[in-house]
Amino acid sequence: MTDSRDHEQRSLYRRVADDLRADIVAGNYGAGASLPSESELAARYDVSRGTVRQAFSALRAEGVIASRRGARRIVLSGPRLQSFTELLSFSRWARAVGEEPAGRVVSLERRDATALEREQLNIADGSRIYHLTRVRMLSGRPVMIERTAYPDRVGALVAGMDPDIESITERLAELGVLFTDAEHIIDAVPASTEDARLLDVRPRVPILRERRRSTDPSGTPVEWSEDRYLGDAVAFTVHNSVAANALSRQPGPGPSTKAR
Q1: Is 92 in a helix, a strand, or coil?
Q2: Which keywords does UniProt give here (predicted)?
Q3: DSSP output for 130-159
């Protein structure tokens, strides 16, 4: 009985935290804004003030809010949060947080797959792939570089698109290629000379790297990507739970994910 009660309590505070985070990401509470008080939120969700305090603690640990004794919690300025609890394309996520997504193709070529690409895409020696390098922008500002390898059959579809204006993931879904699972590996790396040029930053500035492998409903890899983000523009959130054995939002090496 105690375990059941504890699980219910965790679910309640996560729901409050998730709702507040979503409101912050959506811009309903801007940087410097005060969140509702503990008593207001407790009444709104019909929970105890202790549950609300747990939700605030979770958001404070993520760097989303700050608190001062005797004062309401304040929203901190910072990067837009992208949750790994959902498999969303960059374009759909950007629109959800009130930004205008855009892309600029740097290169799209069909070539022999490298050893790493063959491994991650589970294709044979001598296979050909399509490789896309594209800069993604939020409201005109470059914030991410995606370098994605597609198996030949998928890449041929991508080659027929206009990646400057289309969401590749959403268009592929219309064509019957579904991104249903992904694994991610995220770390920090120094910006290369090319990264710096494309993102308009200094070389060797620390940036976030996401290595992602996405698969379709049958488990067949449909992309292998190494994306690089400006850390002051985008941050990632992850919700873990003892009730779930795996985090299925997006890909990684032996990884990785996030839809484009």
Answers
A1: helix
A2: DNA-binding, Transcription, Transcription regulation
A3: EEEEEEEEETTEEEEEEEEEEEHHHHHHHH
Q: What is the pLDDT of residues 183-226, one digit of tens each?
A: 989 999 999 999 999 999 999 999 999 999 999 999 999 999 99
Burial of 3 (0-12, 13-18, 19+ CB in 10 A): exposed
Phi, psi angle pair for 68, to nearest 5°: -130, 145
Q: By C-alpha distance, which of 133, 242, 253 is closest to 183? A: 253
Which segments of 1-140 does DSSP mark as H helices, in order? 2-25, 38-45, 49-61, 90-96, 115-121
Q: Give the predicted TM-score (pTM) of the model.
A: 0.63
In what helix (H) or strand (E) does residue 168 lie, and over which residues does it extend?
Answer: helix 168-174
Name the DSSP class of 29: S
| Closest C-alpha to 97, from 114, 77, 79 | 79
Domains annotated for the chain, with CATH where assigned, are 2-75 (1.10.10.10), 80-237 (3.40.1410.10)
DSSP state of 26: T
Distance CA 257, CA 182 (A): 4
